[in-house]
C-alpha cells in the first residue's frame, strides 16, 4: 500500500488553480465528474505522479476546512522559493527554524480556502522528506 495524495475541496476551482500554479504545481489533468463537480489533478514539476487533487463541488457551498492541518511541500532553496512566491503575489511567512539551527527551515502560506501549506527545506545532506531514521532515537 502507498499514500497517493490529499484531496482538498475548494470553493472556486479557478482561484484555487491560480494559487497552486503560482506555488509551482502543474495541472496534470481535469475530470468533469458531472453535476457541476470538477476535479483537478496536480503535481510539482519534479514529481512523476499526481500529488494533490482539488475537488470543486459548488452545490456544497463554501469550504470550511476542519480536521486537516496542513500540506507539506519540499523546497530545495527556501529563500529563492519565498522570493518567487512573493513575486507571484503570494504571501509566505518569514523563515522559521522549528528544529533549531541544524533542523529544517520552514515557511507557511494559506491558500484561498484557508488550507495551510508548509514549505520545508531539509538540512544539507538530509534525505528528501521525513524518513523513519528521523525517529529512531525517539521513545515509542
Describe this structure in words.
The structure is a single chain. The chain folds into 2 domains: 1-59, 2,3-Dihydroxybiphenyl 1,2-Dioxygenase, domain 1; 69-129, Roll (2,3-Dihydroxybiphenyl 1,2-Dioxygenase, domain 1), CATH 3.10.180. The chain contains 2 helices and 7 strands, in the order E-H-E-E-E-E-H-E-E. It is of the alpha/beta class and 140 residues long. The protein has helices spanning 13-23, 78-87; strands at 7-9, 26-34, 37-43, 52-56, 70-74, 105-110, 116-121. The strands form 2 sheets. A 4-stranded mixed beta sheet has the order 1-4-3-2, with helices on one face. Strands 5-7-6 form a 3-stranded mixed beta sheet, with no helix packed on it. The relative contact order is 0.18. A hairpin with an 8-residue loop joins strand 3 (37-43) and strand 4 (52-56). Keywords: Metal-binding. It comes from Nocardioides bizhenqiangii. Residues 2-122 form the VOC domain.
Task: Note the topology.
Elements: E1 7-9, H1 13-23, E2 26-34, E3 37-43, E4 52-56, E5 70-74, H2 78-87, E6 105-110, E7 116-121
Parallel strand pairs: 1-4, 5-7
Antiparallel strand pairs: 2-3, 3-4, 6-7
Protein name: VOC family protein
Organism: Nocardioides bizhenqiangii
Pfam family, one: Glyoxalase
Biggest pleated sheet: 4 strands, mixed
CATH topology name of the largest domain, in short, is 2,3-Dihydroxybiphenyl 1,2-Dioxygenase, domain 1
Envelope shape: globular
**Count of helix runs:** 2
* End-to-end C-alpha gap: 23 Å
Q: Structural class per helix/strand content?
A: alpha/beta
Radius of gyration: 16 Å
| Overall residue-averaged pLDDT value | 89
Q: CATH superfamily membership of the largest domain, which one?
A: 2,3-Dihydroxybiphenyl 1,2-Dioxygenase, domain 1
Number of domains: 2
Order of helices and strands: EHEEEEHEE
Strand order of the largest sheet: 1-4-3-2
Amino acid at each position: 500500500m502507498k499514500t497517493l495524495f490529499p484531496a482538498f475541496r475548494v470553493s472556486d476551482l479557478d482561484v484555487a488553480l491560480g494559487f497552486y500554479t503560482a506555488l509551482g504545481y502543474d495541472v496534470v489533468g481535469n475530470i468533469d465528474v458531472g453535476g457541476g463537480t470538477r476535479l483537478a489533478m496536480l503535481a510539482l514539476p519534479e514529481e512523476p505522479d499526481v500529488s494533490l487533487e482539488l475537488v470543486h463541488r459548488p452545490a456544497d457551498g463554501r469550504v470550511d476546512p476542519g480536521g486537516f492541518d496542513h500540506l507539506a511541500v519540499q523546497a530545495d532553496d527556501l529563500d529563492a522559493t519565498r522570493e518567487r512566491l512573493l513575486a507571484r503575489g503570494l504571501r509566505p511567512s518569514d523563515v522559521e527554524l522549528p528544529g533549531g539551527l541544524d533542523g529544517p527551515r520552514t515557511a507557511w502560506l494559506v491558500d484561498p480556502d484557508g488550507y495551510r501549506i508548509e514549505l520545508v527545506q531539509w538540512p544539507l545532506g538530509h534525505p528528501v522528506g521525513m524518513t523513519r531514521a528521523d525517529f529512531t532515537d525517539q521513545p515509542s
